[in-house]
Amino acid sequence: MNMDNTVEIRVRYADTDQMGVVYYANYFVWLEIARTEFLRQLGIDYKSIEEKERLSLPVIEAWCRYKAPACYDDIVLIRTYLSQLRNTSLEFEYEIFNKKTNQLLAKAGTQHVFINSQRRPVKIPEKINSLLEKVVLSNK
Amino acid sequence: MNMDNTVEIRVRYADTDQMGVVYYANYFVWLEIARTEFLRQLGIDYKSIEEKERLSLPVIEAWCRYKAPACYDDIVLIRTYLSQLRNTSLEFEYEIFNKKTNQLLAKAGTQHVFINSQRRPVKIPEKINSLLEKVVLSNK
Amino acid sequence: MNMDNTVEIRVRYADTDQMGVVYYANYFVWLEIARTEFLRQLGIDYKSIEEKERLSLPVIEAWCRYKAPACYDDIVLIRTYLSQLRNTSLEFEYEIFNKKTNQLLAKAGTQHVFINSQRRPVKIPEKINSLLEKVVLSNK
Amino acid sequence: MNMDNTVEIRVRYADTDQMGVVYYANYFVWLEIARTEFLRQLGIDYKSIEEKERLSLPVIEAWCRYKAPACYDDIVLIRTYLSQLRNTSLEFEYEIFNKKTNQLLAKAGTQHVFINSQRRPVKIPEKINSLLEKVVLSNK
């Protein structure tokens, strides 16, 4: 994750399909990496959330609009935004670019809810919330 | 694909993640299977579209709302609808159920455009269009 | 799983890569399905092994020899054999065929060990062992 | 790829399964990344081999021995060796480590053959062969 909330991912052969481009479901794996690194840069370690706080942050909604294909060995650059922050849930938005050409390849979003080990929604822990509040777009 | 536009898929161990449920991106792989079988039942063989018509039908938008988790070894049942049919594009909607409990696990949608080998949008071939027209919901 | 220890799997678009054939790692996902159904037919439910016995059966070695490619929408037929049965471990071997042409596409094998929740190897439970003994090739 | 033939990969949530560790088939995706970067460092761009030389290098055999699990968010370090170089084929071997603990997680190997667009084996192109000869272990 760079200082401008971007992460770079090189397209793997495994990501492609016989259309010669990246299979559409694989973009959602990239989004996971992008938001994890976004959180890490804020000082929020998702692994610790699961292991220490016994909370998890499953996806409750996801979408992606595909504008141009990503191809094998391309480096894609994903910019992540925290677009909404609520009591128990939050939303990320993403822009995926071809790093070399700067072409926008896709826009995407994911909505998440904090749940405990009984899979019940819980309030976002205070320490995490205060870090997120600094960067949420909906506050601005 | 059964007569009621449903397809059954057994959850693979590979589909799960360490949260103990199916990883969110894998639902989109299921949608691909559901729409392929939906088309096959109408008499439309997607493989032939690519090989004989030299057309393909990439996803230009996809979304999923997750309501309850799918778990290892569950059989999920996916019901597919053709929700929109336009000149060059079409939209599917999907409902994913746990077969045993009938619980609705997710709702989803995908939008597609017919493109030729130069990746240009093309009119849906007449033969395919006439088969799709019979089942599209937006006509009703 | 049919009576002759085979399972059928239709190749998904997601399974292919830009070489136009199934990506090599995906065969190992098929092996998981094949051995799960092999066990189920013997009366051994792998999900219960994890949930009730608190044991699991991770792979400690895997190999595959690829002889001919599997392609999109093909139906592959996987035949599973229990090739070795030991105190704490067992081995499966697999043959993967194109169902339509009967062509042998790949041969493969996996070795597994029963472990408990502390990830220690444990003796195969007696009930499971007696079911496996009936079909192991190394006994014959 | 570092100077010592290693590549680092961070374990994705998508890589894990409900056993809480990386699913066994996903190691083979890592091997693909490791050998691609190994070749790139030698000055061999696999993408160009496919696009310009119209050749490809499919896997004809693959194996992995799993010694200890890789877990979510771990950084694994993969060291790649060219273990055999023949007229039309070559073999890689790999060691996968946990970067933090230096623990060896797995050993693996893949065998490949150069094929043309008719899927016939072909002699390794001279320019590529001379770069590979410098690093092959079997020459030493």
Description:
Four copies of one chain form a homotetramer. The first copy, chain A, is of the alpha+beta class and 140 residues long. Chain A has one domain: Thiol Ester Dehydrase, Chain A (Roll). Helices cover 22% and strands 31% of the residues of chain A. Chain A has three helices and five strands; from the N terminus they run βααββββα. Chain A binds chain B through residues 18-19, 21, 24-26, 28-29, 32, 50, 56, 58-67, 69, 119, and chain B through 18-19, 21, 24-26, 28-29, 32, 50, 56, 58-67, 69, 119.
Task: Chart the SSEs and their pairings.
Four copies of one chain form a homotetramer.
Chain A: E1 6-10, H1 26-42, H2 46-51, E2 59-66, E3 75-85, E4 89-98, E5 104-113, H3 126-133
Antiparallel strand pairs in A: 1-3, 2-5, 3-4, 4-5
